[in-house]
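An instance as discussed:

___
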Amino acid sequence: MFQQDEVAGRVEPVKRAYESLAPTYDRRWRSYIDVSLAKVMSAVPLVGNERILDVACGTGELERRLFARWPDLRITGVDLCPRMLAQAQEKHIAGDVTWIEAEASRLPVPDSQFDVVICANSFHYFRKPMNSLKEFRRCLARTGTLILVDWCDDFWTCKLCSLWLRLTDPAFFCTYSLRAGRDMLVDAGFDVTHAERFKVSWLWGMMLFVGGKTLASDDRRSISAIP
Protein backbone atom coordinates (compact mmCIF):
# COMPACT_ATOMS: atom_id res chain seq x y z
CA MET A 1 0.00 0.00 0.00
CA PHE A 2 2.83 2.42 0.83
CA GLN A 3 4.49 1.78 -2.52
CA GLN A 4 1.24 2.46 -4.39
CA ASP A 5 0.67 5.66 -2.41
CA GLU A 6 4.24 6.77 -3.07
CA VAL A 7 3.88 6.25 -6.81
CA ALA A 8 0.51 8.05 -6.87
CA GLY A 9 1.94 11.00 -4.96
CA ARG A 10 4.86 11.25 -7.37
CA VAL A 11 2.85 11.29 -10.59
CA GLU A 12 -0.45 12.87 -9.52
CA PRO A 13 0.53 16.56 -10.06
CA VAL A 14 1.65 15.84 -13.63
CA LYS A 15 -1.42 13.73 -14.31
CA ARG A 16 -3.78 16.41 -13.01
CA ALA A 17 -2.08 19.15 -15.02
CA TYR A 18 -2.24 17.31 -18.32
CA GLU A 19 -5.68 15.86 -17.78
CA SER A 20 -6.97 19.45 -17.74
CA LEU A 21 -4.77 20.57 -20.65
CA ALA A 22 -5.60 17.64 -22.94
CA PRO A 23 -8.54 19.10 -24.90
CA THR A 24 -6.68 22.30 -25.85
CA TYR A 25 -3.07 21.13 -25.78
CA ASP A 26 -2.45 20.91 -29.55
CA ARG A 27 -4.01 24.30 -30.24
CA ARG A 28 -2.46 26.09 -27.28
CA TRP A 29 1.11 24.92 -27.94
CA ARG A 30 1.00 24.64 -31.75
CA SER A 31 4.18 26.58 -32.53
CA TYR A 32 6.16 24.81 -29.80
CA ILE A 33 4.92 21.42 -31.01
CA ASP A 34 5.73 22.18 -34.64
CA VAL A 35 9.34 23.22 -34.00
CA SER A 36 10.22 20.58 -31.41
CA LEU A 37 8.66 17.66 -33.30
CA ALA A 38 10.27 18.81 -36.54
CA LYS A 39 13.60 18.46 -34.74
CA VAL A 40 12.65 14.95 -33.65
CA MET A 41 11.59 14.03 -37.19
CA SER A 42 14.88 15.28 -38.61
CA ALA A 43 16.83 13.11 -36.17
CA VAL A 44 14.91 9.84 -36.63
CA PRO A 45 17.03 7.37 -38.67
CA LEU A 46 14.20 5.40 -40.29
CA VAL A 47 13.87 2.99 -43.19
CA GLY A 48 10.12 2.79 -42.67
CA ASN A 49 9.28 -0.50 -40.93
CA GLU A 50 10.82 0.09 -37.50
CA ARG A 51 9.32 -0.56 -34.08
CA ILE A 52 9.09 2.74 -32.20
CA LEU A 53 8.38 3.49 -28.55
CA ASP A 54 7.20 7.06 -27.87
CA VAL A 55 7.40 7.78 -24.14
CA ALA A 56 5.08 10.55 -22.93
CA CYS A 57 3.36 10.55 -26.31
CA GLY A 58 0.69 13.05 -25.23
CA THR A 59 -1.98 13.63 -27.85
CA GLY A 60 -0.28 11.44 -30.46
CA GLU A 61 0.87 14.32 -32.62
CA LEU A 62 4.27 12.73 -33.28
CA GLU A 63 2.56 9.49 -34.27
CA ARG A 64 0.37 11.34 -36.74
CA ARG A 65 3.40 12.96 -38.35
CA LEU A 66 5.49 9.79 -38.41
CA PHE A 67 2.76 7.73 -40.10
CA ALA A 68 2.18 10.46 -42.68
CA ARG A 69 5.77 9.94 -43.82
CA TRP A 70 6.36 6.25 -42.97
CA PRO A 71 2.99 4.43 -42.96
CA ASP A 72 4.46 0.97 -42.22
CA LEU A 73 5.97 1.84 -38.84
CA ARG A 74 4.88 -0.04 -35.71
CA ILE A 75 4.50 2.45 -32.86
CA THR A 76 3.73 2.11 -29.17
CA GLY A 77 2.74 5.37 -27.50
CA VAL A 78 2.95 5.54 -23.70
CA ASP A 79 1.55 8.32 -21.56
CA LEU A 80 0.61 8.86 -17.94
CA CYS A 81 -2.65 10.71 -18.66
CA PRO A 82 -5.78 8.92 -19.91
CA ARG A 83 -7.25 12.11 -21.39
CA MET A 84 -4.10 12.78 -23.44
CA LEU A 85 -4.32 9.24 -24.78
CA ALA A 86 -8.03 9.78 -25.49
CA GLN A 87 -7.12 12.82 -27.57
CA ALA A 88 -4.61 10.69 -29.48
CA GLN A 89 -7.22 8.03 -30.18
CA GLU A 90 -9.72 10.65 -31.37
CA LYS A 91 -7.32 11.60 -34.16
CA HIS A 92 -8.02 8.18 -35.74
CA ILE A 93 -4.39 7.88 -36.76
CA ALA A 94 -4.00 5.48 -39.69
CA GLY A 95 -1.21 3.07 -38.77
CA ASP A 96 -0.11 0.22 -36.52
CA VAL A 97 -0.22 2.00 -33.16
CA THR A 98 -0.82 0.82 -29.60
CA TRP A 99 -1.61 3.24 -26.77
CA ILE A 100 -0.56 2.38 -23.19
CA GLU A 101 -1.19 4.27 -19.97
CA ALA A 102 1.99 4.03 -17.88
CA GLU A 103 4.74 5.94 -16.10
CA ALA A 104 8.10 6.51 -17.85
CA SER A 105 10.07 4.90 -15.05
CA ARG A 106 7.90 1.73 -15.12
CA LEU A 107 7.30 0.87 -18.77
CA PRO A 108 5.15 -2.26 -19.29
CA VAL A 109 6.91 -3.39 -22.47
CA PRO A 110 9.41 -6.22 -23.17
CA ASP A 111 13.20 -5.91 -23.12
CA SER A 112 15.07 -4.98 -26.34
CA GLN A 113 11.79 -4.63 -28.24
CA PHE A 114 12.19 -1.30 -30.06
CA ASP A 115 14.42 0.00 -32.83
CA VAL A 116 13.84 3.61 -31.75
CA VAL A 117 12.86 5.05 -28.37
CA ILE A 118 11.69 8.69 -28.42
CA CYS A 119 11.07 11.02 -25.50
CA ALA A 120 10.05 14.52 -26.56
CA ASN A 121 9.16 17.55 -24.42
CA SER A 122 8.56 15.72 -21.14
CA PHE A 123 11.82 14.84 -19.39
CA HIS A 124 11.60 17.90 -17.11
CA TYR A 125 8.56 16.32 -15.42
CA PHE A 126 10.19 12.98 -14.59
CA ARG A 127 10.62 12.51 -10.82
CA LYS A 128 12.95 9.55 -11.40
CA PRO A 129 14.97 10.60 -14.45
CA MET A 130 17.69 7.95 -14.11
CA ASN A 131 15.12 5.18 -13.65
CA SER A 132 13.37 6.41 -16.79
CA LEU A 133 16.60 6.48 -18.82
CA LYS A 134 17.43 2.95 -17.68
CA GLU A 135 13.96 1.86 -18.76
CA PHE A 136 14.55 3.46 -22.18
CA ARG A 137 17.78 1.47 -22.46
CA ARG A 138 16.08 -1.76 -21.37
CA CYS A 139 13.41 -1.39 -24.05
CA LEU A 140 15.85 -0.49 -26.83
CA ALA A 141 17.19 -3.08 -29.27
CA ARG A 142 20.93 -3.72 -29.21
CA THR A 143 21.59 -1.49 -32.21
CA GLY A 144 18.62 0.82 -31.63
CA THR A 145 18.52 4.60 -31.33
CA LEU A 146 17.35 6.86 -28.51
CA ILE A 147 16.12 10.37 -29.33
CA LEU A 148 15.50 12.74 -26.44
CA VAL A 149 14.32 16.35 -26.80
CA ASP A 150 13.65 18.62 -23.84
CA TRP A 151 14.07 22.09 -22.37
CA CYS A 152 17.68 23.19 -21.90
CA ASP A 153 18.85 25.04 -18.81
CA ASP A 154 21.81 26.55 -20.69
CA PHE A 155 19.46 29.32 -21.89
CA TRP A 156 18.88 32.10 -19.37
CA THR A 157 15.19 32.26 -20.27
CA CYS A 158 14.81 28.60 -19.35
CA LYS A 159 16.67 29.17 -16.09
CA LEU A 160 14.15 31.87 -15.18
CA CYS A 161 11.24 29.66 -16.21
CA SER A 162 12.62 26.83 -14.10
CA LEU A 163 12.87 29.05 -11.05
CA TRP A 164 9.31 30.29 -11.56
CA LEU A 165 7.87 26.82 -12.18
CA ARG A 166 9.52 25.40 -9.06
CA LEU A 167 7.55 27.97 -7.07
CA THR A 168 4.25 27.80 -8.92
CA ASP A 169 3.83 24.45 -10.68
CA PRO A 170 3.74 21.25 -8.58
CA ALA A 171 3.98 19.17 -11.78
CA PHE A 172 7.39 20.59 -12.73
CA PHE A 173 10.53 18.78 -11.55
CA CYS A 174 13.83 19.85 -13.14
CA THR A 175 15.53 21.06 -16.32
CA TYR A 176 19.12 20.20 -17.20
CA SER A 177 22.03 21.67 -19.10
CA LEU A 178 23.33 19.98 -22.24
CA ARG A 179 26.35 18.68 -20.35
CA ALA A 180 24.27 17.40 -17.42
CA GLY A 181 21.87 15.69 -19.82
CA ARG A 182 24.73 14.00 -21.63
CA ASP A 183 26.28 12.86 -18.34
CA MET A 184 22.99 11.34 -17.23
CA LEU A 185 22.64 9.46 -20.50
CA VAL A 186 26.19 8.11 -20.26
CA ASP A 187 25.61 7.03 -16.66
CA ALA A 188 22.43 5.24 -17.75
CA GLY A 189 24.37 3.23 -20.33
CA PHE A 190 24.03 5.26 -23.53
CA ASP A 191 26.64 6.26 -26.06
CA VAL A 192 25.68 9.83 -27.01
CA THR A 193 26.52 10.32 -30.69
CA HIS A 194 24.96 13.74 -31.17
CA ALA A 195 23.90 16.61 -28.91
CA GLU A 196 22.79 20.12 -29.79
CA ARG A 197 20.95 23.13 -28.46
CA PHE A 198 18.21 24.85 -30.46
CA LYS A 199 15.54 27.51 -29.94
CA VAL A 200 11.79 27.19 -30.34
CA SER A 201 11.30 30.90 -29.66
CA TRP A 202 12.93 33.69 -27.69
CA LEU A 203 11.57 31.97 -24.58
CA TRP A 204 12.05 28.27 -25.16
CA GLY A 205 15.58 26.90 -25.42
CA MET A 206 15.78 23.19 -26.16
CA MET A 207 18.29 20.38 -26.50
CA LEU A 208 18.43 17.24 -28.61
CA PHE A 209 20.30 14.02 -27.85
CA VAL A 210 20.77 11.06 -30.18
CA GLY A 211 22.45 7.89 -28.98
CA GLY A 212 22.44 4.15 -28.61
CA LYS A 213 23.28 1.52 -26.05
CA THR A 214 26.86 1.48 -24.80
CA LEU A 215 27.88 -2.07 -25.63
CA ALA A 216 31.27 -2.02 -23.90
CA SER A 217 33.05 0.37 -21.58
CA ASP A 218 35.63 1.27 -24.23
CA ASP A 219 32.99 1.90 -26.91
CA ARG A 220 32.06 5.38 -25.64
CA ARG A 221 32.86 7.99 -28.21
CA SER A 222 33.75 11.60 -27.52
CA ILE A 223 31.14 14.16 -28.38
CA SER A 224 32.23 17.26 -30.23
CA ALA A 225 28.92 19.10 -29.97
CA ILE A 226 29.58 20.05 -26.34
CA PRO A 227 32.30 22.67 -25.81
The helical segments are 2-21, 25-28, 30-43, 61-69, 82-90, 129-139, 156-168, 178-187. The chain has one domain: 2-216. The domain at 2-216 is CATH 3.40.50.150 (Rossmann fold). The first strand starts at residue 51 and ends at 55.
